[in-house]
Design brief:
It contains 15 helices and 14 strands. By secondary structure, the chain is an alpha/beta fold. The strands form two sheets. Strands 3-2-1-4-5-6-13 form a seven-stranded parallel beta sheet, sandwiched between helices.
């Protein structure tokens, strides 16, 4: 189905949630790096707060007042822009009305979620309608899950694709949570388990993950239960060019076995605190939504994901994706470049609509943009 020609719109990219910590960073990145002809707007609940953000950006931007509880305002926001970049989370609570407005009004959508339940929900409810209308819905366009998703694509480019591909990713880094990220994490940890296998997690491509020593890297691998492997496997299914068979497993890389024990203890403590009301509220008070690490802390933060890929029984190929502060500075870069890709290179994207992934929709185009913006992709 060929979608009808989109009506003229006031803005090319609207950053929804621009007064929040990550939203400000995304708006600032776009203001600094978008070509002059790209029209940017900031959106949120308070016109006064939006005006203060706009005054900091150093270029003319629009102001759009919208709230997740106001469907009419969301519809006006989506109808007035080509791309909505939303940072308003937790997405399982606030994301669906924005997706619905974008699909109904013909605006492409992207977010920074790492919440499997939300991704599963929007695939089930909006994938078919988005395909029919030629609307791209791209969740997980920040640290969850661009380094993994595009890193897996980058690794497959160094492997022959006529044999089964097995890839494992090993995450290392240093950074600090913002209040919004902590709120989303606590929401995921306290959510009831899904009643069935998520639509976002196909059976094919799953690899049993276990604690192990990775000889090529000299690191211990501890299974990392984030949404990243779900997205990588979904990309493999949507693209269809990751070999006749494909599997992916995702780990945090740790230098010593006792670090594995410390990590397990810390994860157990966080899960326990999330389920105990007073402790959960204390964590939220200590890291309220809207707060985040200082520029000095972010300047010392970094990440690296190392991919060990094999084609059949061939020797492994080692690839890397690395950068600076993962959760905020680099996330703003990743989301901003994804939005710019949708505006400036939309006709070159592989996917024309539906709930997709960055690797399936933008793929090599986005890798090139992120390389030019300073993110490092390498093959040893």
């Amino acid at each position: 189905m060929t979608p009808p020609a989109a009506p003229a719109r006031d803005w090319d990219i609207t950053v929804f949630g621009a007064t929040g910590f990550v939203g400000r960073l995304c708006a600032a990145y776009l203001a600094a790096h978008a070509p002059p002809e790209v029209r940017i707007a900031v959106a949120g609940r308070s016109r006064d707060k939006l005006a203060a953000v706009a005054a900091e950006l150093g270029r003319e931007v629009g102001i759009v007042v919208a709230d997740t509880g106001d469907d009419a305002a969301l519809a006006r926001m989506a109808a007035g822009t080509r791309v909505v970049l939303t940072t308003v989370g937790p997405y399982v609570r606030y994301g669906e009305p924005v997706v619905r407005a974008c699909v109904e009004q013909g605006a492409d959508y992207l977010d920074l979620t790492g919440e499997p339940a939300f991704v599963d929900r929007i695939i089930e409810r909006y994938d078919e309608a988005a395909r029919a209308r030629g609307v791209l819905v791209l969740p997980c366009c920040g640290f969850d899950s661009i380094p993994t998703d595009l890193g897996v694509l980058w690794t497959t480019r160094a492997l022959p694709r006529d044999r089964p591909l097995t890839i494992a990713g090993y995450m290392e880094g240093r950074g600090k949570f913002s209040g919004g990220t902590l709120a989303s994490a606590l929401g995921v940890l306290t959510a009831p388990p899904p009643p069935r296998k998520p639509r976002s997690e196909p059976g094919a491509g799953r690899k049993r993950a276990a604690i192990h020593y990775q000889r090529e890297l000299g690191r211990w691998g501890l299974p990392l239960p984030t949404i990243d492997p779900v997205i990588a496997r979904r990309s493999a299914r949507l693209r269809g060019d990751y070999g006749p068979e494909f599997s992916y497993a995702h780990y945090i890389a740790l230098p010593r076995i006792y670090h594995v024990g410390l990590a397990l203890a810390g994860a157990g403590a966080l899960v326990g605190a999330a389920k105990i009301g007073p402790l959960r509220r204390m964590l939220t008070r200590m890291n309220p939504p809207g707060s985040g690490p200082s520029p000095e802390v972010r300047a010392k933060s970094w990440f690296k994901v190392t991919f060990v890929g094999r084609a059949g029984d061939d020797p492994p190929v080692i690839a890397e994706v690395s950068g600076g502060d993962p959760g905020y500075d680099e996330t703003a870069k990743m989301a901003g470049e994804t939005a710019l890709c949708l505006v400036l290179q939309r006709d070159m994207c592989k996917s024309t609509g539906g709930v997709s992934t960055t690797a399936a929709a933008c793929g090599e185009l986005l890798i090139e943009r992120l390389q030019a913006a300073g993110l490092r992709f390498a093959v040893r």
